[in-house]
Structures are given as C-alpha cells and as structure tokens.
C-alpha cells in the first residue's frame, strides 16, 4: 500500500536522516548472525561499515563491492538496477535488531524514521507522490520462471514493473485476527454424548398399539386444516408417549390438556375464506398483501402466511396443485383451442372435491366426504409418488461420484 | 505406536476452477492428486469427506465484511464496475478475478474449517485438506494467489478447544498472512521456513520478525537462501521444531505443506526432493499431536501431485510403490512415471553450514524467552462453526446397501486382505 518508487525513498531518507538512531548503538549486539543473514562480508573494514551505517551508501566503492558480492545471484540485472536500494536495506538490518532489544517495541516502531519500518504515519505523507500503485506491488508470479514451462511464460509481467516494496508485518486491528477468548471444556467424554436426546424408540410398543394411539391422538388433537384420511405420524405425540413411559392413556390425557391453546391461536377458516385464499394464490401467487387486499379481507397478512404454510401440507393443496397442473397441460397441448365443455366439467369436479369446509373425523357426514375425497386423494398421491421416485432416480445418476 | 484416525477432505468440484491463461496456480492439480490417491487405494485407509462449503459468516471471522462482500459480488463480467476496489483489495495481477472465485474460496475454506472441527471433537487425529493452505491472504486484501485465509479461519476454530496452536509452514514463501493475523498473540506460534532476500515474494519473513506485545517471541522465522537441499533443510527443521515443541508444547498443529519448496518448481528456488519434503511431514506427524494438514503453493503440477500423494501415504502409514498407477493423467509424469524421480537442480546450495547453524542458534535463543507456555482459563463455550445437521444430507437410497457416503467414511483395517466385497482371488495353490 505504501508504495514508493526509488526516488521517493531517497528523498525521504535524506529528510529523516538526522532522526536515524546513531550508529554507535550498533555495538550493543553481536552482529555475527546478522552479517551472515544479510550477506555481509567479514572482511569489510570498520570505516566502510560506519560509512554505510550513517546512510551514505551512495559511496561508489561500497556500492561496487556489494555488487561484486552479489554477482553470483540469479537476478543479476535487478540487483544492478536497484543496487543502491539493496545496500540501503542491508544497512537497516542492524537498526531493526536494535529495535527488538528495546523494551517498548511498539512505541519504537511508531517513531522509527525509516520509511520501510513505519508504514502508517508515512503512508499519509506519501499519498500525494505515489502515482501507480499497481505496478509497484510485489508480484509473486514473477519471482522465478522456469525455462521448462514455456507455454506459460507470457504470463509474467515486465520485470521492470517489479519494484521492491518494503513489506512489513503490520500491526493493528486492521491486520490481526480476533482471538476467541477462553476455552471450551475439553475432557475425555465423547462429544455430543450428553446433548443427545432420545425422541422415539420404535422397539418398545408394537405397531398396532402405536397405530391406535396415533388414531386417538389425531381425534383429540384437532388440527385447523383437514389432514386427510391417512393416518400420519405425529412426532410430537410420539415424543409425548415416550415421555410418559409408553403409557398410552396417560399420553392421550396429556394431549387433550395441551391442545386447547393451539386451536385458539388460529381460529377456524370458513370454506369461503379457503376458496378465496386459493383463488388469490392462483391470481397473485405468493403476494399475500395483494391476496389480503383483494380476496381475504377478513384475515391479516400474518394469518394468511401462517395459513399458507399449513395449507401447503394439506390435501387441499394437493388437489389445488394437481388441478392447476392439469389446466396448464391442457392449454399447452392445444393452444388457442378452448373447450368450454371440458372446462365446465372440470370446474364442477373441482368444486365437488373442495366442498368440505373443515373435514374432521368427528363430523357426522365424514363418511360422505371421505367417499368423495378418497379417489382424488389416492390419485394425487400416486402422481406424487411417481414424481418423487422419478426425481430420486435422476438424482442418483447426477450425484457427483468419487469414481472409485 | 497406535495407528491414527485420518480424515481426508476433498470436494470433487474444487479442481475445476481456473485462474486464467498462463497463471501458475492451477487448482486442477487437486484433481490429479485425488486420482492418484484413489488409484493407490489410499482412500480405503482413511475417512473421506465431501466438505462443507464455508459461508460468508465463516470467512468474516477473520476477514472484513466489505472485502468478503466484494469477493462475493465480483465476476469477470462486472469487473469494470469495481475498478476502484480492485487495487484496494489487491485483486487483479497475482490474484485475478475468475469464474466461480467465491465458490472456490468457500470450498477450500470450508474443508479446512471442517477439518479443524473434526479435530476439536476428537473425530480424527489428522485432517488433510490439500485444497487449503492459502497463507498469504490478509484481513483486508488478497495476496499471492490467496483470497481467503483458510488457515487463519481453521486456527481460530481450533482455538476454541486448544490453548496453544502451532502453525508450521514449509512453503518456499513466507507465511505472512498467518503470521500477521497472530502477530500479537501467544496462543498461536507461527513457524515459517522459507526463502528470504533478493526481493523474493512476499518480502517479509526476516528472522527479526519475532512478534510483538503479548505475541513477542511467538513468531518464528527461519529464512533460507536459494538452493537448499534435503540434508541442510532437515538439519535446521528438526532441531527448530523439537525446540518449539519443548518450549511451547502446543495441543494442536496446523502444517502447511506448500510444495513449491521442491526442486524444479516454477516459482520456487529450493532443491528439496519429495522424500525430503515428506520427511518434514513425517516428523510432524510423529509428534503425536492432533494435526490439520493443508496444501499451499506448488507450481510444477507433476511434482505437487507426487509430493502430496506421497505425503498422504506417510500420514496414514501406508507404503506405496515408486511406480505410479495408471490414471488419466499418467502422461504428466513422463518420462520416468515414478513417484520419486531423480532430483535435477541447477541451483547451487547458497546456505553454508555455518549460516544454518547460526540461524538455528538464533531461533533457539529466542525460544528460550517464551519458556512459560501460556495457558487459558476455561470459559463459556463458543458454539462450533458448523452444526452437523446444517450440512444438507441427501435422502439415502433405500435400495443401496452401503451408500457412497458411508463407504467413503469406512476405513479398511491394516490387515485387511481382500480388496473389496467382490474380490474373488484365490491363493495360487488352489488353481
């Protein structure tokens, strides 16, 4: 981010030269490791070193000698191009070391005058002079290109664009990750062992008993929406049964205590409301606001949404969906042809089917309704099953497999 | 030594991304490795998982919201609209915008994250994710082919259960993104072995970068010069890691196995052989600490595939033959078609023995300063990043006895004699 081409570095160096830590401090540490790392020549004379440390690296002798030392490096050309800069970096290393010894490294870093060491403050100063940021970023892809990969050679940007950016590790909330505080308990217990909760064990009671229980539960637990003549697994009822130690009577008793608030929460929908809602869905889709405005004024939008989700699972919806699918198909098969007789019959048919306002097992004419209902329901179920099994098969072939 | 439970994370789609023509980073290497792993039969000895895909939320545990939002929205088509952002987030040159960029990120990040979780829950001892290890990515910007730093996100997950996590990086490049993320903390020690100097990317990784504040002495850098060979590398690696273990005593390790430190890499300049590289992995494995193994760099495709296949076999303690099995990629490995080709290097080893000794000594002196491993108080449990049931499970096909998913998770016993259910081979004398 704090990019500077070489000219800038020189300028800033000169400006801040007087603030640089005095070279005498360098004697505080043993330089041997440091010298090794930075390719220092052991035979370098003291004068030379002092001269370099004082920032007067433009001395032609020093530069020449350094270039000689670097001559067997692979990126010769670059070194020649930026020889001055490299020298400069070598000189900074002792200062860095000095920095580490300081008891307050952070403060020292803030006040460090060298541009590479001090990103944040100087960055502001630099902003006006930096011209092309992108060109001077240190690019990884150019660091070395093997001769073997000729076909990819063209990728590497111009070597001239590659400038040394003094990257440093930045400190601040913008750079570090937030470490989670504290630790989880971590003992020998298997994970999840205590969190697991048995919801239902099918092996304790036999099938018939459970079926009878579910039938009773369904009678007691009246639902708002007609649930159809099939017996459904009621997970909550089963869980309750298991909580009651598989005592059927006790479970039924508890269910009958608990059902009342549920019925209150949503008052029964009249057949007319249901029909209006369905026609609303047909014309406005799932725009419940529109449906409320134009079709079912007696209910709030929230109630409509709630009803929608219940309705979706009911058999009314199956009939609804099936019918609309059939209609679509018919028009798709004979576009432009309107068979009014057909339409009329279908409408009649549909009205018959959906004429049961709130089908319940308890109602006296339930038998009558269920006779009317049975055929269409089984039909829709068949269609659905076929549809699902079709999906399942195609899914299997499409699943990404490991090709073992 | 007891055998370890190994989990291997591979998303079948992760190899299908492309950084762009001529770009040295080739995600396709992951498919090559996986096909070798399968053909060597290594999948029978470990549990294979199709990993979870990381969400924006997971990535924002380290990265900034704006940056991740940008990654999610930018595509090669609408790139014009983001000109300003591109240079701000360092996206463009090294880190191009390509099709499916965000999907790619969420795949490799999710795999590392799930690996960390499996380790946390003791479901396995070693988790392998060769697609991860993108160690350069910073909080606010992409860098060096890396967009989202899956390592940092994985370590953050490990920190929920582990007081001290050790990060080891044997990529040829400095692991600057990870070091920077944990520069101020003592709960993560980052140790990176890399090439330093001569403007080598990313420019950081001097041995004097040792961390700051609480994290002082908890960043370890071992800079090498070009051309280091197996013997010299291990001569430093072994004592440094041993010392780190002694002084820091981590309870979990993340090992970044960047394969660009191999000889003949397109971008790297070291002279390691696959065996030498694997030796480091084996050494870390034998420390008997839960380990998340991730990939990283590696730009000569055939060598990366060899290296990581070999290392997979090391991690599950399985010997594999030097002769490569037939795969659709066999021609990549011409002319020798072997796992451990002869190392040919024109690079001279610029690291003198004296230099290596000096640097080992320096690291040792610094490590002595952090003798007291930090401990952490027990605390309220932050929930796991992913709930098991959040992964959408397809309904199982009732007609299949053992589903693909189940089969992938099964591990053959060491002494398993038959290749599979249908193996009908009889001993020779019966014929």
From TrEMBL, chain A:
Domain SANT: 264-316
Annotated region (Disordered), positions in chain: 13-32, 40-123, 138-159
UniProt keyword annotations, A-Z: Nucleus
Top-rank lineage group of the source organism: Eukaryota
Cell compartments where the protein resides: Nucleus
PROSITE patterns found in the cross-reference section: ELM2, SANT
Pfam family, one: ELM2
Domain ELM2, first and last residues per copy: 167-259
Stored InterPro entries: ELM2_dom, Homeodomain-like_sf, MIER/MTA, SANT/Myb, SANT_dom
Predominant cellular place of this UniProt entry's protein: nucleus
Ranges of Acidic residues composition bias in the record: 40-61, 89-115, 147-159
Name of the protein this chain belongs to: Mesoderm induction early response protein 1 isoform X1
Organism: Nicrophorus vespilloides
Name of the encoding gene: LOC108565869
From TrEMBL, chain B:
Biased composition (Basic and acidic residues): 411-425
Matching InterPro entries: HDAC_I/II, HDACs, His_deacetylse_dom, His_deacetylse_dom_sf, Ureohydrolase_dom_sf
Region Disordered: start-end pairs: 387-406, 411-431
Compartmental location: Nucleus
Keywords: Chromatin regulator, Hydrolase, Nucleus, Repressor, Transcription, Transcription regulation
UniProt-listed Enzyme Commission number(s): 3.5.1.98
Stored SUPFAM superfamilies: Arginase/deacetylase
Homology family: Belongs to the histone deacetylase family. HD Type 1 subfamily.
Protein name: Histone deacetylase
Species in which this protein is naturally found: Nicrophorus vespilloides (Boreal carrion beetle)
